[in-house]
Amino acid sequence: MKTYCLVILTFFSIITSCKPTAEEVVVYNSVDQVFSEPVLKDFERETGVKVKAVYDTEETKSTGVMNRLIAEKDNAQCDVFWSGDPLRNNILISRGITAPYQSEETALIPAYFKDKENQWIGFSARARVLIYNKRLIQKDDLPKSLLDLIKPAYKGKFTIANPLFGTTTFQIASLFAILGDSRAREWMQDIKANGVIIATSNGDVKKRVMQGEIAFGLTDTDDAFEAEKESDDVAYIFLDQQNSGMGTLIMPNALSLIKNSPNSENGKKLIDYLLSKETEAKLAVSSAQMPLIRGTPLPTNVPSLDAIKPMKIDYNETSKVLEEIQPWLKQWAEQ
Amino acid sequence: MSDIQLSHIDHAYGGQTVLRDFTHTFAGGKITCILGPSGCGKTTVLRLIAGLEAPGNGSIVVNDERVTENGKILVPAYKRRTGFIFQDLALWPHFTVYQNVAFGLNEHHAKNVGQKVKDMLDLFNLSNEQKKYPHQLSGGQKQMVAIARSLVLRPQALLMDEPLANIDIQVKSRILEHLLSIHQADPFTIIYVTHDHKEALDIGNSIVVMNQGNIIASGNSEEIIHSQHIFLKSFIKT
Amino acid sequence: MGRAINKYVIHNLLTLVLLLLLLVPVLMVLVQWLLNAGKINAISFLDRGALLLIVNSLLLSATVALLATLIGTACGFFLYKTHLKGRRLYLLLLIVPILISPYIFAVAWKDLLFLLFGSTASAFSTAGVIAVHTLIYFPLALLITGNALTNISSSLEEAGLMVTSFRKMIFKIVLPLIRPAFMSSFLLILVFSLGDFSVPAFFGIKTFTVEIFTQFSAFYNYDAAITKSLLLVGVCLILLLSEARYLSGAAFFSISTRGSNSKIYEMSGIGYVHHTSFAILIILSMLMPVFILLYQSLSGREIVIDSAWKLLKPAVFQSIKLAFWGALLISIIGLYAGYWQERLKSPFTNVLLLILFILPSTILGIAFIRFYNQPETGFIYSSLFIVLLGYIGKYGFIASRITGNGIRQIPVSLEEAAEVSGVRPVNKFIKILLPLLSPSLFVSFVLTFVLCLGELGTTIMVYPPGTELMPVKIFTISANAPQALTSSMALISLLITFFFIILFFMAGRVMFKKNSDE
């Protein structure tokens, strides 16, 4: 009998080893763990507040954290949601899961990159780019605009990730917002007719272009940045940068405070910490993210936001557009 | 009816010798009992004749045909026209009684399979059981099916490996009587392995006594009973 | 009367606990769905397209299950029924694909196709999904049918050899005899293949599970996802229960406890044909994917195995610890469920585990979150218990079947003999049944350990914040990391799992050698 007790005791002590500490903050994270984890560790070291993170990634569709946040709605476990783009935050807002937050630090962020009620606050941004393999296509031969993708010269030569997921959804939704429904649908049908290859994720786009399987594809700046580090054959350009062009999509990271969260004070502390020049500088170095706060130091190989012509969209409007077009996108992808 | 000849057979399992220079001719059309304690190699003799194993050495002749030579099987089991009754009977559990009996006939593309099976089942009083599966039969019925399954192919020789070991005396004698009467009507070679000397003396036209992979005596029941061999005397007494 | 009820409650205590901890959360999701059903018009999700899709997915998975079972059975025959040289090594190598996650396997194969032919279009097809699933799941068939083959009494085969040729005997005697194992292998692989979304999603093939996943992750539409999952679960249940007769008779992962009298055939003359076939199979299912992972981890700008290990290190030990406790718990529950099913003829616990087994991982995760994320049960939700519960839900059924079959192979007479000798029931269980059953329990432990070590679908939904677990970490880091790092991590996880397999294999040899000497 003693042995049994001992076994059971050991079992419990091992399983329940994570005791609640007074100073902690729970963050659910859909930003790539490689880049976000070091920043969170720094916060832990500098403030003494223990960070408990749940990682997931938009590349693999954020199913984990998003469904968790939705299912936990009535008894929130998470303090801060750190997303790679504001779309997901908007889904949470529409389901009443987030809380507004305002502070000195949130004031640093330009209004354009925030929700009007501060339900989400943006920082460090990525942009959509065209990544290409120099062995397969010359820079001069590349399309200059998304709208060029329907040209016969590019038939079967380019790839985008499944538009149902990740930042690709965002890019397509923004296109619908800018061009209007019918033109955008037409364009989608045309690129399909022009042999677009649908990859599983942005990472998959990057990989296929890098390997030389496909000449070029659409992805995010951080993927392009990684690809350049990994291979000399790869380079990237921003699309629609002509004077009359519609500009390229800029996607800030987005933070939301969760409603009725267990450690909301520490959650606020973490948000303030992330909304700083220091954090933006770190993310610029590690994943080529472009700072939103003016005067943040930049490495030479990361472009400044000022140098890019942004696509003029309203993020919250675009989120609404997305919800409307999603069933159609599903059909489009499954055709 | 031709004899079954085994000449200078050596056989071993994993380095352990079971048969040593075994030579014997089993008379055609007669019942020979192989008698001996367990582990003496008597089952192995049957398996070699049947073709379930190849001997290490020596040759075997069945139906005037050399079936093994120098450790190689020349004629496979199913072409030797021998029947085998296994100790555990080995009735195929996924076949009915009818299917168990008919299976071999069908494999040999025999004619009138239905009639032959029916006759055989009648002979063993199994007609009412033909749609049953083995697990639905009594112990005695299972024995009957096993024997019927072999005899329906009209084998030149029937090899029986202690088939009646676990069955009560009344059923056993009834089955034996049945078998012997069939044998009398149409003689075929029977080699019957047992460790029960009474049974052997009872039914065997001749008896082969084995111990440790060798024949220590052979002859008719009279000769065996009166043998002066020490092992034999003690074995028969116990 | 009171005592009788007491006894009944005590005997069924574990069933009640399992019911409460595992099935009630699922039932609550069901109830909520039913209450909602009128409002959301659930039937509208089940249009013609959905039904067509489930038929297509079933066809795809049935093809996989059939191919995998055929290949597995053929391998099983040569590895378990012949003296083929090197068969132990073959067996060990052929089991490796089970240890590689389907997603990594699919990626590796696509990369390989590109490396060899410069084109990967052929992989992005139904055929690609079938090929990858078949290669991943045939080892399961090999284990199941192989063990069934060794359990056929040799005299049944020999009686066949007396009347017909070897080839016909195999088709007419041996194959019908292992039909239960064949069926259970087929159905098990069917369920596994139906349940996996990662491979078809990667190859761009729409299956029913991909559809459920899309409803969850792109639309966050629980009602649609749950309605469709219910349809999937219903179909699986009907399939499994319709074959319950075979399944319950199947030699499901049995391992023979006593010296088996299985017939072993000599393979003379044409041995090289078999060796070549095995070599091809091993190259396809194991060497190629491992080669590509190795190639990719070494072909980056710098060698990153070291940094991959640094990233994984904290997660590895946590994962092993958790998989150990998970496998232990699951084996105990499997023993309990198997005993009730086989000896007490009460299938309830077993059916409970079966339902959880065929439930899509995401649904199990959602059910757990909704049920356990309450102030009263928060202590479970915020601890690793929740991950263990996920493991039990996903793999309890497998353990129950392995142990149940082990129990079936032990003649009741052995226990009855103990009873008439006046042995107390507890001692009968501990001193007769458990020692005889130890090989089955061991297999159940090892297999569930390996499965727990790689479980991702439910774990990623419920793991407590701040915990690091190996499959989750590989999954989340892989997304944007350089290929070399991703491949290195996959390779490390494969090596760790393989290390434990070898370790258990050797431990098993020592343990059971001692037993058989006694």
From TrEMBL, chain A:
<dbReference type="InterPro" id="IPR006059">
    <property type="entry name" value="SBP"/>
</dbReference>
<keyword id="KW-0410">Iron transport</keyword>
<dbReference type="Pfam" id="PF13416">
    <property type="entry name" value="SBP_bac_8"/>
</dbReference>
<protein>
    <submittedName>
        <fullName>Iron uptake protein A1</fullName>
    </submittedName>
</protein>
<keyword id="KW-0406">Ion transport</keyword>
<dbReference type="InterPro" id="IPR006061">
    <property type="entry name" value="SBP_1_CS"/>
</dbReference>
<feature type="signal peptide">
    <location>
        <begin position="1"/>
        <end position="22"/>
    </location>
</feature>
<keyword id="KW-0732">Signal</keyword>
<keyword id="KW-0408">Iron</keyword>
<keyword id="KW-0813">Transport</keyword>
<comment type="similarity">
    <text>Belongs to the bacterial solute-binding protein 1 family.</text>
</comment>
<dbReference type="InterPro" id="IPR026045">
    <property type="entry name" value="Ferric-bd"/>
</dbReference>
<keyword id="KW-0479">Metal-binding</keyword>
TrEMBL record, chain B:
<dbReference type="InterPro" id="IPR027417">
    <property type="entry name" value="P-loop_NTPase"/>
</dbReference>
<dbReference type="InterPro" id="IPR017871">
    <property type="entry name" value="ABC_transporter-like_CS"/>
</dbReference>
<keyword id="KW-0472">Membrane</keyword>
<keyword id="KW-0410">Iron transport</keyword>
<dbReference type="InterPro" id="IPR003439">
    <property type="entry name" value="ABC_transporter-like_ATP-bd"/>
</dbReference>
<dbReference type="Pfam" id="PF00005">
    <property type="entry name" value="ABC_tran"/>
</dbReference>
<dbReference type="GO" id="GO:0005524">
    <property type="term" value="F:ATP binding"/>
</dbReference>
<dbReference type="InterPro" id="IPR050093">
    <property type="entry name" value="ABC_SmlMolc_Importer"/>
</dbReference>
<keyword id="KW-0813">Transport</keyword>
<keyword id="KW-0406">Ion transport</keyword>
<keyword id="KW-0067">ATP-binding</keyword>
<protein>
    <submittedName>
        <fullName>2-aminoethylphosphonate import ATP-binding protein PhnT</fullName>
    </submittedName>
</protein>
<dbReference type="InterPro" id="IPR003593">
    <property type="entry name" value="AAA+_ATPase"/>
</dbReference>
<dbReference type="InterPro" id="IPR015853">
    <property type="entry name" value="ABC_transpr_FbpC"/>
</dbReference>
<feature type="domain" description="ABC transporter">
    <location>
        <begin position="4"/>
        <end position="237"/>
    </location>
</feature>
UniProtKB/TrEMBL annotation, chain C:
<feature type="transmembrane region" description="Helical">
    <location>
        <begin position="351"/>
        <end position="372"/>
    </location>
</feature>
<feature type="transmembrane region" description="Helical">
    <location>
        <begin position="89"/>
        <end position="109"/>
    </location>
</feature>
<keyword id="KW-0997">Cell inner membrane</keyword>
<dbReference type="Pfam" id="PF00528">
    <property type="entry name" value="BPD_transp_1"/>
</dbReference>
<feature type="transmembrane region" description="Helical">
    <location>
        <begin position="315"/>
        <end position="339"/>
    </location>
</feature>
<feature type="transmembrane region" description="Helical">
    <location>
        <begin position="441"/>
        <end position="464"/>
    </location>
</feature>
<feature type="transmembrane region" description="Helical">
    <location>
        <begin position="50"/>
        <end position="80"/>
    </location>
</feature>
<feature type="transmembrane region" description="Helical">
    <location>
        <begin position="230"/>
        <end position="255"/>
    </location>
</feature>
<keyword id="KW-0472">Membrane</keyword>
<comment type="similarity">
    <text>Belongs to the binding-protein-dependent transport system permease family.</text>
</comment>
<keyword id="KW-1003">Cell membrane</keyword>
<feature type="transmembrane region" description="Helical">
    <location>
        <begin position="276"/>
        <end position="295"/>
    </location>
</feature>
<dbReference type="InterPro" id="IPR000515">
    <property type="entry name" value="MetI-like"/>
</dbReference>
<feature type="domain" description="ABC transmembrane type-1">
    <location>
        <begin position="316"/>
        <end position="507"/>
    </location>
</feature>
<keyword id="KW-0812">Transmembrane</keyword>
